[in-house]
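TICKET: design request
STATUS: open
ATTACHED STRUCTURE:
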């Protein structure tokens, strides 16, 4: 269980580091993104372990990766070229 938690936290942190490196213009500050990825990985491992019981280690890490990616995707901002004005033009 300890290895699942440690592995999922490291996996979420690595995913968050990759997101900060690849998409710095679309994400908020690094101090928000890195803990979000780590917490998403831990929550994903907890959720997968609770739902599947003593499943394989790789299956729990896959669940952690999916939830970490989903939580990081919530932080993404739209690019400037797709942003529309909120005022209606008449």
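STATUS: resolved
RESOLUTION: sequence designed for all positions
ATTACHED SEQUENCE:
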């Amino acid at each position: 269980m300890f290895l699942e938690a440690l592995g999922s936290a490291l996996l979420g942190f690595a995913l968050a580091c990759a997101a900060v490196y690849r998409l710095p213009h679309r994400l908020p500050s690094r101090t928000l993104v890195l803990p979000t990825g780590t917490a998403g990985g831990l929550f994903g491992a907890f959720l997968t372990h609770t739902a599947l019981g003593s499943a394989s280690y790789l299956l729990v890490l896959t669940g952690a990766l999916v939830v970490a990616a989903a939580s990081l995707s919530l932080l993404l901002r739209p690019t400037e070229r797709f942003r529309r004005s909120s005022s209606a033009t008449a």
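CLOSING REMARK: The radius of gyration is 16 Å. The mean pLDDT is 87.
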